[in-house]
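Reminder: ligand-aware prediction takes two inputs, not one.
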Amino acid sequence: MNPHPIAVFDSGLGGLTVLHALRARLPQEDFFYFADTRFLPYGDRPEAFLKERGVLIAEALVRHGVKALVIACNTATATAAEAIRAATALPIVALEPGVKPAAALTRSGVIGVLATTRTLQSERFQRLVGNHAQHSKVVTQACPGLAEAIENSGPDSPAVAALLDAFVAPLAAAGADVVVLGCTHYPWVAEAIARRMPPGVALLDTGEPVARQLDRLLGAAGLLGGGHGHLTVATSGAPAKVSATVDRLWGQHLPVEHWEP
Ligand code: DGL
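Here is what comes back for the chain with D-glutamic acid:
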């Protein structure tokens, strides 16, 4: 048993889609969710910046007293996971686009991947495709602007609809029968993506596998239990603005505090 919280971090509020799955699987744990809103979007930032920022956040979370870290951001994983692992001794779960399960699932042999520019350009993503999807055709689509539009305008906004029209059409045209949601913001618009694909197309996100992995990791390290199901949400941005978006996405009011790593 270990009463310390588990840290979950993202560039913004996309990681709440992962947090949802974590809390469903581990309701007794306490969570500290950090949205690095001031630097959203990560997807358009240079790799060196994200590496440095990721390590700085992880080291600050260690000082904050967390018992484990979930990197609930594909972009941060792609650019900084190795550096974060090298810099801290924390148990870490890093998520990456579900290319491996997609390769097992596709019947058409065509997998669509929606992710940030930085994730798709990363060496780690190239390795993932090379290792797990060499027998499939992988059609990638970068989605600049989508994560910010989901947060700033809302998942049902005309701005998001226009971006999805542009980003999803190439996957449908290529005959993808599986779409990997390779950014944790995109599950907020999963239905809108599904509506733009032919019926029966599978959408894959990584919330549940990440929750299983965290459960296994904490169990193996003897760190499970000791919490009370508390959730703290913190941001490097303006709490009042972030709070309004959290309430809209989470569907209930959650207090948001400022935290500076
Ligand atoms: N949620 C982040 C991810 O999973 C990206 C959003 C951003 O560009 O900041 O990749």
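The mean pLDDT is 97. Residues 34 and 59 are 13 Å apart (CA to CA). We will return to this case in the review session.
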